[in-house]
Write a structure and sequence with these properties.
With 173 residues, the protein is of the alpha+beta class. The protein has one domain: Aminopeptidase, CATH 3.40.630. 30% of the residues lie in helices and 24% in strands. A hairpin with a 2-residue loop joins strand 3 and strand 4. The termini are far apart. The chain binds coenzyme A.
Length: 173
């Protein structure tokens, strides 16, 4: 198995697998143009024969926070380490960029506990995530996902009404 950064040629596989699980809300629906635009966020796993096994993405909010998104493995490839390898690679990528807080929303917290994530009881402690995805989500008031973070919860946010961009520029500098 190989785990590597995605190339644009992976976009159709990423699109198919992510949207195969968006109908029931397991993953956020992503359009093909959106996946192409953000393909450099993605890491993919493939077999030694080059068969696509799964993917995951790391979205940067800023130097204070990033998010693991769209992590999924083909049903027939589950349980063979691909999901863990993809997640580990995304976490290494966050560290390479000096980001010490990684968040996600999920229905399977047990998987992420294994990788050092912990539950965030109050979702409003992650305002950037709320502003980016939750505000327009049909499940806003009946969300069945668990918010999780690895590292500290950021004290600042970059999206929404409370802009603290200057503080972020200072941190990243
Ligand atoms: C979650 C998912 C990516 C895991 O991929 P995978 O390749 O099967 O995972 P791995 O084989 O690398 O498993 C790594 C570890 O996590 C555990 N694990 C895997 N899936 C798990 C789950 N759903 N719940 C709890 N633990 C899980 C494995 O037992 C293994 O533990 P171990 O190291 O103690 O043996 C895969 O099941 C999947 O695609 N699920 C559907 C999409 C989804 O729900 N994504 C998460 C959206 S936030």
């Amino acid at each position: 198995m190989q785990v590597r950064k995605a190339r644009l040629q992976d976009a159709s596989n990423v699109y198919d697998i992510v949207n195969s699980l968006s109908g029931d809300g397991t993953l956020l629906k992503r359009s093909f143009p959106e996946i192409c635009e953000n393909i450099r966020d993605f890491t993919v796993a493939e077999s030694d024969a080059g068969v696509f096994l799964g993917c995951g993405a790391l979205h940067f909010y800023g130097p204070h926070l990033c998010e693991v998104r769209s992590i999924v493995v083909k049903p027939e490839a589950k349980g063979q380490g691909a999901g863990g390898r993809i997640l580990g690679t995304l976490l290494e990528e966050a560290e390479e960029h000096g980001i010490h807080s990684v968040c996600l929303f999920t229905r399977i917290p047990d998987f992420f506990f294994k990788f050092g994530f912990r539950t965030v009881e109050d979702k409003s402690e992650l305002p950037d995530k709320i502003f980016k995805d939750c505000q327009n989500c049909p499940r806003l008031h009946r969300c069945d996902e668990v918010a999780m973070v690895r590292g500290r919860i950021p004290r600042i946010s970059i999206l929404g009404p409370r802009h603290e961009a200057q503080e972020l520029v200072r941190i990243s500098g």
